Amino acid sequence: MLALSPLMSAFAGTALVLGLRMLLLPLLDPQRWYWRALLLGGAMAMAWRYMIWRLTETTAPLAWTWDAVFSWSFAILEALTVVSSSVAFFILSRVKDRKKEARLNERWWQPGAPPRVDIFIATYNEQLEVLERTIVGAKASAFPASVFVLDDGRRPWLAEACQRFGVGYFTRPDNAHAKAGNINYALRARAADPDAPEFVAVLDADFVPHVDFIDRTLALFHDASVGLVQTPQHFFNPDPIQHNLGISSAYPDEQRHFFDNVEPSRDAWGIAICCGTSSMVRTAAVEAIGGLPTESVTEDFLLTLRLAENGWKTVYLNEALTEGLAPEGLQEYIVQRGRWCLGMMQIVRNVYSPLGQHGLSFLHRLSIFDSLLYWNTTFSFRLAGIVCPLLYWWCGVTVVNASLVDIIIYYCPYYIAVMAVLNWLSKGLFIPVVNDVGQLVAAWPITRAAATGLLTKGPHKFSVTAKGGDRTKIVVQWPLMWPFLVMFALTIGGLLVNLHSDFVFNNAGTAGDGMIVVMFWTIYNLFVLLVVIAACIERPRVNQPQRQSLQRVVVEATGEELRGWLVNFGTEHAQVSGVAKLAPGQSVLLRLPIIGPIAASVREPTRDGYQLSLSPSDEQRSLIIAKLHTASQTPGTDKGDISLMIRELARALTR
């Protein structure tokens, strides 16, 4: 018992943090800045307590040895992640909610005439199936606005489709400066028209505006100094990691923390950023800075900085006013994030260094520094976390020389405090393993993009995120998977070899309690790698319902009206329950309010109903799209449910 007392005593700090988490945090309001500042500050104090111990007690003596090289390299990288977290936590210490402000200023222009508004839909290679949702949604706006499709693909069929939908169409002779150049071309063309817009809403080709998108964003332009209003991006389909792991009902999309927590906090400090789609700009502000900047492939962030340098504000309205199509394939998901990283590095290298000579305020410089640290430390540190145990097992290199008792004293309270505070203010979005998977799957491409952007002048190619296409087959992403398979095999091999022989190294006892510590991280890494490998297997998205819907419905078959429930609904399919007497291939009518009778056929029976294939008219198709995507509601889940996520993840890994 005496031998256990130091170990048991080491858990005192962890027990205290857990007790505060269970008893105190549920009683505190995360919208109060003083609670946020206190708790985030406390978590950072524990982080720096841990980091000081790491740098002074756990690193190898300075010498030209592999132990020293890898020990200090990893410690310095870890210290940089703590610096990054400190800046991020400082930003998160305040929060702003502009919903009331938007409500109080809904008609700020009255008694004058309403301002003229354009909706720009930027497109390059998207299919009509993707574009029609956005066009129909834009036309359904409650506020009268002119809709224009900006086609950088110069496709005749799209020009014909725009004429059929009754919306404007722009194309240009080249693709100079990609999306920014496309929007600038349309802005110049519209500025010469008699009905030139005073405000322009910008949508990506796959983002559908809700009916109140224009009304709500326009309200915040009551302040004449506001040059841009950004709203969050929500998605009506799961992203590849959610979908491939089958956890979309228990775990939100990867961008929820940024849009639900980071952007409102940035707005409180006056450093909210434009994220491209789902935003609205004041044309006078854009004209004053010479159009959208083109020096980076992430023109949206750069636009924010250019506006700020010229005295214009970017503000954020945290309401679900649009919904888009998340990247459906893992490769597209990674390409998108690599482009974001590359664009940020271009801004730092070529335009707005946080230490450069320009007109940005201290807080905007801090904003740039925050993004710079995030992209350069988060993902490379996750890679290092996989590699370091391998160095121990295969090369005998001790990266962290510490006792188990000290790790429990310093690391555990820090880790639990950070996770508890982040989950308190984010509705449970930070779940171990799943967060690591999201970082690890894109870690190498993002690390490479960061180095490319910082070390090379460019120009760098703009990579468009592919959307739509056939997603009905299982696809194994071997180019993405094989590095993780190799790391998994090396981890298993190093573990087995060292535990059963001295074939490579017998490392037990060479790093204090190193075997126990490295064993823990090895097992943890094996589980993370296993989940990453599972995420690299693209599951089919067959007839993916666009939105869950449960309402009474009538199915008319051979003159008889059968009443049941509409369970799933899309433009080409539906699932009904509580309906009997139908046969596969049978022609029926699905009667819905407003939309009317839709021609359909029975595809196959389900446990308590039938799957139907729909054949709506063009008018009905538009009404269906409007019903599915333009209502003022939030698609998907916005909070984490760890118990449900574990059950869903277990099913995905064992099926």
Describe this structure in words.
Helices cover 50% and strands 14% of the residues. The protein has 655 residues and is α+β, with helices and mostly antiparallel strands. It folds into 3 domains: 2-93 and 372-538, no CATH class; 99-326, Alpha-Beta Complex (Spore Coat Polysaccharide Biosynthesis Protein SpsA, Chain A), CATH 3.90.550.10; 547-629, Thrombin, subunit H (Beta Barrel). Helix 14 packs across helix 15 (362-395), helix 14 runs parallel beside helix 18 and helix 19 (478-500) packs antiparallel against helix 20. The strands form 4 sheets. Strands 3-2-1-4-7-6-8 form a 7-stranded mixed β-sheet, sandwiched between helices. A 6-stranded antiparallel β-barrel has the order 12-13-14-17-16-15. A two-stranded antiparallel ribbon has the order 5-9. It has helices at 5-10, 12-23, 33-57, 66-92, 99-104, 128-139, 156-165, 178-191, 213-219, 240-245, 256-269, 283-288, 299-309, 330-351, 362-395, 404-426, 434-440, 443-455, 478-500, 514-535, 618-629, 642-654; strands spanning 117-123, 146-151, 168-170, 199-204, 207-209, 226-230, 279-282, 313-316, 322-324, 475-476, 537-538, 547-557, 560-569, 573-577, 587-592, 596-605, 609-614. The longest helix is centred in the middle third of the chain and has 34 residues, at 362-395.
